Structures are given as C-alpha cells and as structure tokens.
C-alpha cells in the first residue's frame, strides 16, 4: 500500500510535469541521482521515499515544499520569500582556523603514519633487492656440467 508521503511525492512530480519543470520520470530520476525503477518503486508502494531523495529533490527543485511532501503541511510549492537558500554552505559561519585546530591532530597522526609506512616500504625494497641478488648468485653458482642428457 502506498505511504502518504509517497502519494504526495508522486502528486508533486505530476505537477512538476504539468508545469514543464520535468518531462518524465527518466529526467526526474536523473536529476535526483537515481533511476527510473527507483521512482517506479516509490509510485507503486514497493519502496518508501527516502530522506536523501527528498533532500536531492529540494536541491534540484528549490520551489518544492518538502514539509508538504513529508508531513502534508502547507502548500506543495514554496513562495519566493519562504524558499531556503540551499546554495549557502552550512559552514559559512564557522571560523576556518577553528576547523584547522580541530583537524590538526588527526592530520599529524596521518602524516606520521604515512612517514612510517614510507620507511617500511624503503626497507622492504632494500630487502627484496638483497634477496634477488642472493638468488641470482645461487643460481649462477650451480654446476650444470654434470647434468645428465636425457636425449
């Protein structure tokens, strides 16, 4: 059985088609980062619409009122004044230097680990070269003069 939010989603999609915002489910699926089968599964009730799909819909179609899709509250479409500016980064008000302070210890640990791994790789390469040289000498020292001729 179709979920209420699925019904509202499909109703909204049909209205977007009528308004010329989308041509078909293939175009919608592409803009939402899914496939036509995913949209068909929502329409048939085999699958419930996900928060991620709703988020992508808001990004692709900012005029859509996601509160209406989820809760059935308000109008299907937002007015210009009530549209959220989704282009703003949620970190715009964050001090970049504070972010660096938070991540500096993690980055330092990673750097140290990479240096240690680079040293280990160098040691392993040297060991491989040594073994190859030893193997080459051993093979070269073999006495093949007394080998039996089977022919």
Write the layout of secondary structure elements.
Elements: H1 4-18, H2 25-31, H3 36-44, H4 51-60, H5 66-71, H6 96-141
Q: Give the helices and strands as they follow along the chain.
A: HHHHHH
Strand content: under 5%
Overall shape: elongated
Largest sheet: none
Individual helix count: 6
Roughly how much helix do the residues carry, as a percent range?
55-70%
Give the N-to-C terminal Cα separation: 82 Å
Oligomer kind: single chain
Average pLDDT works out at 80
Structural class: mainly alpha
Query: How many runs of DSSP E, i.e. beta strands?
Result: 0
What is the C-alpha radius of gyration, as a whole number of Å? Answer: 32 Å
Low-confidence runs:
81-92
Descriptive report:
By secondary structure, the protein is mainly α. It is built from six helices and no strands. It has helices at residues 4-18, 25-31, 36-44, 51-60, 66-71, 96-141.
Tags for this entry?
151 residues; mainly alpha; 6 helices; elongated
In short:
The protein is 62% helix and 0% strand. With 151 residues, the chain is mostly helical.
